[in-house]
Amino acid sequence: MKPQDFKEARYLKNNWFNEFTLGHDDPGYCDWIDIREEKIGCAPGYTKHSIEYFINDWRYRGQLVPEMGAPAAFGCSYTFGYGSNLHWPGMLGVANLGQNGASNDQITRLAITYCKTFKPKEIYVMWTFDGRREHILESGALVKFRNMSLEDFKKQKNVDPWFSAYMELNNLASNHHNFNKNEMLLNSWCANNDIKIHYKDQNYFNKDDYPLARDNMHPGADWHLNVSASFET
């Protein structure tokens, strides 16, 4: 199987839990710096060019790629390793399928479709913030949903009616209910298919107990080192 045989989630029409999708980053080496980093500056010890990401042809981070039998890790930017040259999946020696801004909906869907396609014996999951959702357009395409500031919400409210509706449905109980469904689905699916699942959530280690990443917000290299060690024990 080759990357050319697959497509990004935004091009799906159905088969959401049967068709493995590519990541959403362009292949190659890059050193993105987001608007927030530009505004507040890099964390101490970092420069704009001290962090480099390698995005493989599958549009995921790292030299290890999806392939038959290969274990993989799933999560959000805490798994991707945003703002850090090190990332815990790479330290474990597994393919990194973490996606910046991913929801637990996306993590579950991607993990199941990966397992159906590549048939690994084990996978690793780091659950993300449960307020996120994956939204399905009328075309069947999947897009990320993330909370916005009140100011941004007011601007978007008149542009995307679906976003307004999601914000109104968003509360702590609803978010946790959605997470429980994803957790039960993935655990049950793996159990029924003899796949071992190792999992934690992004708060297993408090990122603020370690030096932060370049953007002064995401976990830094020491946090990733401790996460990888905890999965190994």
Write up this protein.
This protein is α/β, with parallel strands linked by helices. It has one domain (3-232). The protein is built from eight helices and ten strands. The strands form four sheets. Strands 6-5-7-10 form a four-stranded parallel sheet. A two-stranded parallel sheet has the order 1-2. The longest helix is centred in the last third of the chain and has 21 residues, at 172-192. The two termini are 33 Å apart. The model has no long low-confidence stretch (mean pLDDT 88).
Question: How many structurally independent domains?
Answer: 1
Helix content: 25-40%
Shape assignment:
globular
Read across the widest sheet, the strand sequence of neighbours is 6-5-7-10
Total number of strands: 10
Class derived from helix and strand content: alpha/beta
CA radius of gyration is 17 Å
- Give unreliable regions as ranges: none
Average residue pLDDT:
88
Q: What is the count of DSSP helices, taking H or I runs of 4+ residues?
A: 8
Portion in beta strands: 15-25%
